[in-house]
Amino acid sequence: MDALHAKYPFFEGARDAVAGASASLPELVAADAPAVDRARERVERALLEGTVEPEAGAFGGSAVDVDARAELLSYPIARILVSLLDSQPAIEKYAAAEASTALDRLRADLERDDGLRSTPTPTVDLDDVLAEFDLSEAVRAEPTRGSHDPSHYRIAVGPYLRLSSPSWGDSWRLVNRALADGAVRVSREELLEALGAAIEARVREGLPFELEAGEGIAAELESRVSELKRLLSERTYAGPIDIVAPELFPPCMENLIGKAERGVELSGPESFALMAFLVGIGMSPDEVVAFCADTSLDAEGIRYQTEYLADDRGTQYPPPTCETLSNYGICHNEEDHMRVAADPLSYYETRVNDADGDEIVDWREEHGGGVEAESGGEAESGDEAGVDDGAATEAGEPVEK
Ligand code: SF4
């Protein structure tokens, strides 16, 4: 079993590896193989924590040695599980979490120096990933001096439009880009973000599977699906608290905001926890952008994360539990208040309920002007939902995302 397929299970080669596995998926599920448990963990962590990394440790660390076969086979089983949840937001969040985890792994692979590439940990390089998504011809690196990795690339305008979204911010609009010879200039990090969109689309492709409830593999997975639904309903709030009182935020969130205000980059789990909390208390993407204006968090990243966290029914998947945040080193359980609540939103709700309502001033009332100004600016600059008409016409291609 090629561990690389376990690491990037959405690659075409991984599909072939699954097809060539000695046992079929129904057999594995019927036997309650380790891949089934890992699949449940994959979905649970995707929906509740925005990552599919094993709880035991990131793939590529010691966890990779455990069972690459179970890791690989857990991916198609996770896709079946998420289909059985019968929820489009769950599919969106699952695909986003798979893509986010894959991007973290890809960044780590690209950062490895040549010396470390000889370790048993399987790695890919950028060319491998571009080839995987049929982008080898569409992406060209700008020349560099010496042996440094290129800092900028040119991507053909068609794939650029297909793999980016103007909702990521004005800087992604074609009219604001250097465009020459049918190619758009992007930074290396922007290219990785576009690849993240390609991964997300690949994961989402074909979901949900049409499975007859109570029959075959759906019947075998019934208890796992019920377990996931129960967990989700326990973690689903009837509605957002819808009051923004920063002075009542739990210490974990205060610490994350303080860190970002000092200009320190937040890690993936840190920014996920903060965004999920802010959306969970009822803030809109515009409000979160305004709230985080003077921090290391950039507006495009905030919009990307908050828009997939928020759905029509409010935050369906609140921030990770206090226990998980503690494992990530985000929670220090100040004054032992983990006794009070199991997660930051519950803790905040308790503090809001205990506070004198007359004394709470909603941050949005004090800063409404700033948020409105920002929203108004967007309205002026064009349609939020798509590349402005001029850009789309210029490219002659519709925006798919
Ligand atoms: S116990 Fe929970 S709410 Fe309190 S700081 Fe830790 S994660 Fe945050």
TrEMBL record:
<keyword id="KW-0408">Iron</keyword>
<dbReference type="GO" id="GO:0051539">
    <property type="term" value="F:4 iron, 4 sulfur cluster binding"/>
</dbReference>
<protein>
    <recommendedName>
        <fullName>DNA primase large subunit PriL</fullName>
    </recommendedName>
</protein>
<keyword id="KW-0639">Primosome</keyword>
<comment type="function">
    <text>Regulatory subunit of DNA primase, an RNA polymerase that catalyzes the synthesis of short RNA molecules used as primers for DNA polymerase during DNA replication. Stabilizes and modulates the activity of the small subunit, increasing the rate of DNA synthesis, and conferring RNA synthesis capability. The DNA polymerase activity may enable DNA primase to also catalyze primer extension after primer synthesis. May also play a role in DNA repair.</text>
</comment>
<dbReference type="Pfam" id="PF04104">
    <property type="entry name" value="DNA_primase_lrg"/>
</dbReference>
<keyword id="KW-0479">Metal-binding</keyword>
<keyword id="KW-0004">4Fe-4S</keyword>
<dbReference type="GO" id="GO:0006269">
    <property type="term" value="P:DNA replication, synthesis of primer"/>
</dbReference>
<dbReference type="InterPro" id="IPR023642">
    <property type="entry name" value="DNA_primase_lsu_PriL"/>
</dbReference>
<feature type="region of interest" description="Disordered">
    <location>
        <begin position="363"/>
        <end position="401"/>
    </location>
</feature>
<keyword id="KW-0411">Iron-sulfur</keyword>
<dbReference type="GO" id="GO:0046872">
    <property type="term" value="F:metal ion binding"/>
</dbReference>
<dbReference type="GO" id="GO:0003899">
    <property type="term" value="F:DNA-directed RNA polymerase activity"/>
</dbReference>
<feature type="domain" description="DNA primase large subunit C-terminal">
    <location>
        <begin position="244"/>
        <end position="339"/>
    </location>
</feature>
<feature type="compositionally biased region" description="Low complexity">
    <location>
        <begin position="388"/>
        <end position="401"/>
    </location>
</feature>
<comment type="similarity">
    <text>Belongs to the eukaryotic-type primase large subunit family.</text>
</comment>
<dbReference type="GO" id="GO:1990077">
    <property type="term" value="C:primosome complex"/>
</dbReference>
<feature type="compositionally biased region" description="Acidic residues">
    <location>
        <begin position="375"/>
        <end position="387"/>
    </location>
</feature>
<keyword id="KW-0235">DNA replication</keyword>
<comment type="subunit">
    <text>Heterodimer of a small subunit (PriS) and a large subunit (PriL).</text>
</comment>
<dbReference type="Pfam" id="PF26466">
    <property type="entry name" value="DNA_primase_lrg_N"/>
</dbReference>
<dbReference type="InterPro" id="IPR058560">
    <property type="entry name" value="DNA_primase_C"/>
</dbReference>
